Amino acid sequence: MKQRVVVIGLGIFGMNLVKELCKSGVEVVAIDKSKETVQKARDCATKAIVADGTDQDVMNAIGVREDDIVIVSFGEDLAASTLITLHLKQMKVKTIIVKAPNEEHKLILEKVGATEVIIPEKEMADKIAKSLVSPNVIDYIPLADDYMIGEIAPPAGFIGKTIGELQLRGKYHIDVIAVRDMLTEKITMVPAANFVVKDSEVLIVVGREEDVDKIK
């Protein structure tokens, strides 16, 4: 059975999520109490339904499945987000992703069963701050214990040198796990020591954030 994503709550975040998922060819079910909002989602969603996501009987009637990826997007309405998350957990949904406004709400949602809680405003602020402090860090994914996976635009001094010559592990304590050519989108996984870095490429590295920040 094809993987399906159910988005409950069609505010700005939820609606944009539906649109982007649909562009990628994902089967998307969009749910909101507002008939007008659902009407807008019908232009892109596989199925758009006017319903109260906090009503477990309604969710059962809609046919939310255990293997669905369910994304709950209710802004600052913690009561609604918590209730839906609890119901989805009782329905044995394996992947429940919930939008939260802050860390306090995140802790509560994790306690009631959310498998992942995202704080979009905080994550965007972190990325903007990172881009200002370290302009060559194109994008990054934070990991545990201050580690990160990041896309790094190589400084001028890296161009024309091999991975071995750069000695990134010895000098910076980071590892290059892949190289992406921005012109061809070709990805070279775990490049060899004799791989020569070009100015059209970005390095995908893993290491502590403070070590990655040293490459400027």
Structural overview:
The chain has 216 residues and is of the alpha/beta class. It has 2 domains: 4-118, NAD(P)-binding Rossmann-like Domain (Rossmann fold, 3-Layer(aba) Sandwich); 131-212, Alpha-Beta Plaits (2-Layer Sandwich). Helices cover 35% and strands 26% of the residues. It has 9 helices and 11 strands. It has helices at residues 12-23, 35-41, 56-62, 78-90, 103-112, 120-133, 163-166, 168-172, 209-212, and strands at residues 4-8, 27-32, 47-50, 69-72, 95-99, 116-118, 137-142, 147-152, 175-181, 187-189, 201-208. The strands form 2 sheets. Strands 3-2-1-4-5-6 form a 6-stranded parallel sheet, with helices on both faces. The chain has a 5-stranded antiparallel sheet with strand order 7-8-11-9-10. Helix 5 (103-112) links the parallel strand 5 (95-99) and strand 6. Helix 4 (78-90) packs parallel to helix 5 (103-112). The radius of gyration is 21 Å and the shape is elongated. The relative contact order is 0.10. The mean pLDDT is 85.
